[in-house]
Amino acid sequence: MSCHCNVWMRWSFLLAAVYIIFSILTVSVYQLPWFDDVYYADVAWSFLTQGEFSALIDRPRNTNGFFHVPLFMVLQAGMFKLFGLGVWQVRLLPLLAGLIVFMILSRLVFRVTRSEKYTTLFMLLFISDRAINFSLHSGRMDMLALLFVLLSILLFERTLKWQGRWLATVGVIFAGLLLSAGFLTALRMAVATVPCVFLLFLYKPECRSTFYCSLTIYGAFAVLPVMAWLWYAYGGVIGAYTTTSNLDGFSGHFGFLSSIMGNIFRRIYEIPKMLMFYGVIIYLFYKRCEIVRQNFFFCMYALITLGFILFVIERGPYRAIFFPFVYFSLIFAIYSVTNSKMKKLGQVALAGVLALNIFLSMPRMVYLWMNWSVIQPGKVAEQLYRKIPSGAHVITDYRFYFMLREHGCEVLIPRHREKNILEYVEHNFNPEYVLGETPLGPDFSDRMSRVGSVGEPVVSMSSMLARFVYLEPLMRGNNFNAQLWMLDK
User: Fold this and answer.
1) HEC readout, 160-183
2) pTM, full prediction
3) b/e per residue, 188-210, with b = 16+ CB within 10 A?
């Protein structure tokens, strides 16, 4: 038996090592720069260079960075200060955070199940999930927020077992501040943790009075920094709600039962794991399984997942925040079930989810392998720098933002064709080049002379296969092939 367990552990370590190496090698090319990469990087760059939370690329709209909580962009500004502005620099922090989450949760699965097989299964589910990999290779804050929340929960659970009263209090306060850091990195996390108040009724601690006192301190230090930020940025909670509502901020990102509907009708391939999650949670809570109610991690992760499903509108990659918790909850729930038939059924269903994850992930791996030389940003940058002088004013799309910034160019990426944007471009920005796809292209057609093209088209896969696995948008946009035009004065 010991030899068999050692084999599983060796495979787990090998799997983790391969995944870490793969993630590092593909951090710049897993996907090309897109809106979130560029927008958050530009706000961070503005904060670093001008001390303002604003998007320079979005002039004259000059989108207010206060629309977002600040911690991620402040930390990104620190990364730019150390390493400069570029694609891998933008994605380094989310990648490191995601890999740490991967290692911590894998270790936690082994801690609560004492099973190498369940640990390996969790690792396979994590590394084969499309949304998680998208978030790891994107300049978004999801993985960093998840890391803060995960560390906070781990520390809080540990302090419940500490004997020293003052040491435990300091630990709880620090855990609350870590949770607040998660909220100030992604506000969705704050909304998703609302159902955690049901810990008072669901979780069965060893000492109720100590637990309730610790939970109160924990919640207070998690909420107070967020309230201070809202007061500083908006003048209070009411001001924050009014401002973001006018900008389609609150109503556009939060709602009741929105993610349940979104997951069923917008991403068919995620129905199996979500229905499995709903079914397992209902079954376990209905049966009032003691082993479940006595596990703090399962209670927290399941409630956070339910909070995200209930209150957060999932319109993009945000679901990567709670999918690791979904997999942990499913693994622990199946491990906890005592009925042998139910356990077997759960294992088969989870194996089916894993098979679906792998099926959906393989085409992207094949795509990267087929087009590895075409999607390298360094080669495209060399072509670009020979055709555009340093310091030029360029209207472009998100793919070329980092190359042009590194070349010292002024960049404008208009998202819409509006009168005030056209006036700003004509009188303030004075563009010299148009590169790639932009909604303002037709407005300068009489002044444009073609300079040439940059990049190469990608090697195409079967269009039927691409459509089936939701890869067609990737085939169209995940390459640097674009036309370059010079504007006559």
Assistant:
1) CCCCCHHHHHHHHHHHHHHHHHHH
2) 0.89
3) bbbbbbebbeebeebbebeeeee
pLDDT in tens, 21-78: 999 999 998 888 988 899 899 989 989 988 888 777 766 555 554 567 889 999 999 9
Gyration radius (Cα) of the chain, Å: 24
Identify the sign of the CA torsion 375, 379, 384, 389. Answer: positive
CB neighbours of 110 closer than 8 A, spacing ≥ 6?
116, 118, 119
Contact status, residue 319 vs residue 332, Cβ threshold 8 Å: no
Report d(CA 318, CA 132) in Å as an integer: 9
Structure tokens at 341: 């038939």
Looking at residue 168, its amino acid is: A
Q: Cα 32 to the chain's mean position, in Å?
A: 16
Residues 6+ apart with CB under 8 A from 474: 31, 364, 367, 466
Helices and strands, number each (H, E), in the chain: 24, 5
355 CB neighbour count, 10 Å cutoff: 12
Measure the CA–CA gap between 51 and 251, rounded to whole angstroms. Answer: 29
Q: How many CB atoms lie within 10 A of CB 342?
A: 15
250-255 LR contacts (CB < 8 Å, sep 24+): 252/313, 253/188, 253/312, 253/313, 254/188, 254/191, 254/311, 254/312, 254/313, 255/311, 255/312, 255/313
473, containing H or E segment: helix 472-477
Task: Verify cis geometry, omega within 30 degrees of 0, for the bond prior to 60.
Answer: yes
- Give the pairing type, strands 433-435 and 393-395: parallel
Distance of CA 74 to the CA centre of its chain: 17
DSSP string spanning 12-46? HHHHHHHHHHHHHHTTTTSS---HHHHHHHHHHHH
Residue 481 and residue 473: Cα distance in Å, rounded?
15
Both tokens of residue 273?
Answer: 């794991």
Are the C-beta atoms of 240 and 230 separated by less than 8 Å?
yes
AA letter at 244: T
Q: How far apart are CA 388 and CA 404, in angstroms?
A: 9
Helix (H, G, I), strand (E, B) or coil at 453: strand
Three-state DSSP state, 432? coil
C-alpha distances (whole Å) from 118 to each of 6, 107, 112, 351 are 14, 11, 10, 11
- Nearest CA to 70 out of 230, 245, 221 is that of 230
Listed residue (145, 135, 139, 142) closest to 398, CA to CA? 139
CA distance 276 to 179: 28
Distance CA 401, CA 411 (A): 7
Q: Do strands 482-487 and 410-412 pair parallel, antiparallel, or not at all (unpaired)? A: unpaired
Rounded CA gap, 20 and 14, in Å?
A: 10
pLDDT digits (tens, 9 = 90+) for 337-376: 777 888 888 889 899 999 999 988 887 887 788 788 888 8
d(CA 384, CA 340): 62
Distance CA(33)–CA(235), nearest Å, equals 35
